[in-house]
Amino acid sequence: MLDISELPTEPQSEDWGFVFAGRNTVTSLRGQPGLPWRLSEVAEHWGVSFSDAIPVGRWEDRGAWVFSVPEDSINQTQQISGNLYGLLGRVEDSLFHAHGRAYQLLYWRDTHRHCGRCGSLTRAIEDGRAVLCDSCSLRVYPRVSPCVIVLVNKGDKLLLAAAAGFQKRFYSTLAGFMEPGETCEEAVIREVREEVGIEVGNIRYYASQPWPFPSQVMLGFFAEWKSGELKLDPEEIEDADWFDATAMPPTPPIASISGKLISHFMERLPT
């Protein structure tokens, strides 16, 4: 499991390195899928400087860092480059979340090279935990965007929806970003109303999951149908319906918070 309570301060050759080419994570074709590299291997394969490393935490009692490499630098006979989502469910949750944190920090640093207030260059401070603009003293820490994700039921039936614009069609729970000033429960009510036109109640928190696409945290809830008929927002939802356990459509992997919500609900249905 990744320990983020103490960040490494000086890269060592036997430390771990998470490598990304653009949005894709890069791992070795040999060994355990998704396993990070040793820093000595990162230097050997890509010639990167350890000074370019961004601290991630500690993985298996060694420092863990993240690097960005050119997208055209991948050796297809030795390395595999793929979307981070492809690791979901293929590796242990702790390893997926370590990759996710590494990518979020890389994305955050890449999008905060310049100050959002005055446009000057920023520099890393506090062992990489923040960036600082020396021109106007603005200090910025990594941020995550909270989202609610909710499984709505109507008796024994589940409300599942296919999002508009997704190439790989499956049916998932409803989700959306929270707005400033909202409680989680208010966000659940608003998102369901906006996306499928119904009202819900009896909202219960279930669990959360960091979601590095690119920097969300998903807050999972259950809710019950209260009133209304399905009326879909075509810009957000391609299709939605009430399903029972005997006729389920393709759904997200169990490793996702949506998959966990669905599984948890179905396990508690009477047999």
Residue ranges: pLDDT <50 for 5 or more in a row? none
How many domains? Answer: 3
Proportion in helices: 10-25%
- Indicate the overall shape: globular
Going by helix content, strand content and strand pairing, the class is: alpha+beta
Number of strands: 15
Beta-strand content estimate: 25-35%
Give the H and E element order. EEEHEEEHEEEEEEHEEEH
Q: What is the name of the CATH topology of the largest domain?
A: Nucleoside Triphosphate Pyrophosphohydrolase
Average pLDDT score: 94
Largest sheet: 6 strands, mixed
CA-atom Rg in angstroms: 21 Å
CATH architectural group of the largest domain: Alpha-Beta Complex
Give the number of helices.
4
CATH superfamily of the largest domain: Nucleoside Triphosphate Pyrophosphohydrolase
Distance between the termini: 37 Å
Give the CATH level 1 class of the largest domain: Alpha Beta
Structural features, described:
It is a single chain. The protein is α+β, with helices and mostly antiparallel strands. It folds into three domains: 16-110, Nucleoside Triphosphate Pyrophosphohydrolase; 117-142, no CATH class; 145-267, Alpha-Beta Complex (Nucleoside Triphosphate Pyrophosphohydrolase), CATH 3.90.79. The chain is 18% helix and 35% strand. It has four helices and 15 strands. Strands 1, 2, 3, 4, 5 and 6 form a six-stranded mixed sheet that branches. Strands 10, 11, 12, 13, 14 and 15 form a six-stranded mixed sheet that branches. Strands 7-8-9 form a three-stranded antiparallel sheet, with no helix packed on it. A hairpin with a 5-residue loop joins strand 8 (130-133) and strand 9. The longest helix is centred in the middle third of the chain and has 18 residues, at 93-110. The radius of gyration is 21 Å and the shape is globular. The mean pLDDT is 94.
